[in-house]
Design goal:
By secondary structure, this protein is an all-alpha fold. It is about 45% helix and about 0% strand. It is elongated and about 50 Å long.
């Protein structure tokens, strides 16, 4: 039971019908994908099943976090133009590049 939530989050393609999940499974997957407090899963506390997430699939990498944003129409068009003109394949990659560029333009805070 400890491994099941991690497998379902990192390898959702193994599910025959992902929309027909039991409520507790869907709740755990939702919490893990959205970085929310994870509930107990069929008697297993999150401290026991969450460490498995980085061990399944791409070892050492946590699953992608789903975020929703509302863009204006002009922003969607801008993303499209950037995607065509940059060496990227998706809007997500364009946004990642923009975030990295923006972050690099600020001096890093010194760590005490």
């Amino acid at each position: 039971m400890e491994l099941l939530p991690a497998v379902l989050v990192k390898k959702p393609g193994i599910l025959r019908s992902p929309k027909d999940l039991p409520e507790d499974v869907a709740a755990v997957m939702h919490a893990m994908r959205h970085c929310k407090a994870a509930p107990r899963f069929r008697g297993v506390p999150p401290e026991r099943y969450l460490p498995w997430v980085t061990e399944v699939g791409r070892k050492g990498r946590p699953p992608s976090v789903l975020k929703s944003f509302r863009f204006k129409h002009e922003d969607v068009l801008r993303l499209s133009r950037l995607r065509r003109n940059l060496p990227t394949r998706s809007d997500t990659e364009v946004i990642r590049m923009a975030l990295e560029l923006l972050e690099s333009s600020f001096p890093r805070a010194s760590v005490a």
